[in-house]
Design a protein that fits this description.
About 55% of the residues lie in helices and about 10% in strands. Helix 1 links the parallel strand 1 and strand 2. By secondary structure, the chain is α/β, with parallel strands linked by helices. It contains 10 helices and 7 strands.
Length: about 240
């Protein structure tokens, strides 16, 4: 079935991936903030209501959980819209709580085209198999992770080189801003901002096959030390020099 789908995602790379895949079969609207999504939903009448919403948990202006709660479990009523939750960081308790809230599925970022298509079909009642699409994707780590893992990225995107090129272009465009915000947050000891920035960047790296930078971001999130920060900056510099 062709459905009306709302994607609520503030990371440009993640949003581009989700919208590109979904637009093959569905009518897609994109909101980059919680406030915009609320406005879009408020103006959607019964005739033009959304059949499905994919909502990232970590948005610049608030928590996607608030929006999920509104759509999945409104006070005293039934679910307004079928929802799929998205996050680059999931653990079993969080997945369980989101499922209990009424989410049709919980997807980890990055994810493949096949995982996304199956989860959406399943949520809309079109799935034909029982594969578990709630398992998060991951950045493949190795002793010396490559700057770009073309093979893994193309597998995830179903072999679509044009989509990969566009996602990498968006990532490279955003890298200077990510670098500045990470440096500032680390210097100020602002762990909340640092974690949010690393969260978005890791998801983008996963979709693009930027393995070395994704691994460096994961290490900085855990250790928060200067050496780990240096690792992120070196990985950013390597990507900028390589230019996909």
């Amino acid at each position: 079935m062709t459905a009306r789908v709302l994607v609520v995602e503030d990371d440009p790379v993640s949003a581009a991936f989700l919208c590109d895949v979904l637009r093959r079969r569905h009518t897609v609207s994109h909101s980059a903030s919680l406030a915009d999504a609320r406005g879009v939903l408020a103006t959607a009448d019964a005739e033009h209501a959304f059949d499905l919403a994919l909502i990232d948990l970590h948005l610049d202006d608030g928590s996607g959980i608030d929006l999920l709660r509104l759509l999945c479990a409104p006070p005293g009523g039934t679910a307004r819209t079928t929802c799929i939750a998205l996050s680059a960081e999931l653990d079993p308790p969080l997945v369980a709580s989101l499922r209990a809230m009424g989410c049709a599925n919980v997807l980890g970022k990055p994810l493949t085209v096949a995982q996304l298509e199956h989860a959406v079909a399943q949520a809309l009642g079109d799935a034909e198999d029982g594969r578990d699409s709630s398992m998060p994707g991951s950045i493949v780590a190795s002793a010396s992770p490559p700057i770009w893992d073309d093979a893994a990225a193309l597998r995830a995107l179903g072999g679509q080189q044009d989509v990969l090129d566009r996602l990498r272009g968006l990532l490279l465009q955003d890298l200077p801003g990510h670098r500045t915000r990470i440096i500032e947050a680390h210097a100020q000891g602002d762990h909340a901002t640092l974690d949010a920035e690393l969260h978005r960047l890791r998801a983008a790296c996963g979709f693009c096959g930027a393995v070395a930078l994704g691994s460096a971001c994961a290490q900085l999130k855990v250790r928060r030390d200067k050496e780990s920060l240096r690792g992120v900056l070196l990985a950013v510099a390597a990507l900028m020099a390589a230019r996909a």
